[in-house]
Amino acid sequence: MKRWHIFSKVLATSKSGQKLNRAGLAMAAIVTNRPGFARIALLVLCFALLAASSPSTPARMKADYVEACSCHAFCPCYFNKHAEHPYCEFNMAVKVREGQSGDVKLDGAKYWLTGDLGDEWGTNKKGKWVVVSFDPATTKEQRDALAPIILKTYGLDWGELKVQEAKITISRTDDIAEAKLGDGQLAYMKLKRIPGADGKGVTLHNVAYFGAQRNEGFELYKSIEHRADIAGHKFSYADRNAFLISIDTSAGQSTGGMSQ
Questions:
Q1: Contact of 223 with 191, CB cutoff 8 Å
Q2: Which of 16, 62, 101, 128 is most buried, by CB atoms within 10 Å?
Q3: Quick count: other Cβ atoms within 10 Å of Cβ 259?
Q4: What is the enclosing helix (H) or strand (E) of 140?
Q5: Domain boundaries in the chain?
Q6: Angle formed by the axes of helices 140-154 and 38-52, to 10°?
Q7: pTM over 0.85
Q8: Would you give the DSSP letter of residue 6?
């Protein structure tokens, strides 16, 4: 019965005159009566309601990303309206360096995005699917605050959007970056820095990262191993595009995004 109570709240939000977009409906649709999914249901409701309205308090963050995708380096999505293939499957492991939303401090919060941009992200602003995972240590207040920032940064209407909770670990030593979701069972990235001509690495500047207002440059890597097996989706790649990047973004502002 709880699942219908939650779903009715989402419908009531839509009927009250607020716009509930396709992403919000997709999130509502994954509420189930399976015992282990009660916490996911609450996260789904949170995202659906936040997708239906603008944030009431200013929210901003600086965050460090470890990211890899299915394209060869460097991902053409940042300069074109289509990926190398009719898909761009990705993992993004994120730790908030510092951030604030009203009275909520976002410092140290961790989340992970796994998905596929598909073939319409650059022409119709539609992504194929995405799973948002929050680390268990990220509080409910932080998740509520992060939701509109995440949605605004990417600015896509996702055909399928799911939310879950899983342990996130991120590490970097010398030229290797590594990130695990669910101890590596749900998703995993092991990346090696591209050395460059002087052996000190390559950083790409003056390129927009989705809708983030600022970034400190793309530190170019290649994947040693990049995979996911999550929510009915599975992929695995090696020797493909990867990078580390630090961004500054907020819920209320956006740049032109990629390929603009």
A1: yes
A2: 101
A3: 15
A4: helix 140-154
A5: 1-54, 61-250
A6: 50
A7: no
A8: H
HEC string of 177-238 equals: EEEEECCCCCEEEEEEECCCCCCCCCEECCCCCCCCCEECCEEEEEEEEEEEEECCEEEEEC
56-60, 135-139, 220-224, 232-236: which has the minimum mean pLDDT? 56-60
Taken as a whole, the chain contains a residue count of 260
For residues 188 and 197, give the distance between their C-alpha atoms in angstroms, rounded to a whole number: 29
Handedness of CA 207, 211, 217, 220 (dihedral sign): negative
Strand 157-165, strand 104-105: pairing:
unpaired
User: Taking the mean position of all CA atoms in its chain, how far away is CA 127?
Assistant: 12
Distance between start and end Cα atoms, the chain: 46
Instruction: Return the structure tokens found at 178.
Output: 């590594």
Dihedral angle computed from the Cα positions of residues 159, 139, 142 and 131, in that order, rounded to the nearest 10 degrees: -20
pLDDT of 258 strictly over 70:
no
Candidates 39, 45, 42; CA nearest to 26 is 45
**What CA–CA distance (Å, rounded) separates 172 from 179?**
9
Q: How far apart are CA 119 and CA 121, in angstroms?
A: 6
Which residues of 70-142 form beta strands (DSSP E)? Answer: 89-101, 104-105, 110-116, 126-134
Single-letter residue type at 120:
E
Rounded CA separation 89/189 (Å):
13
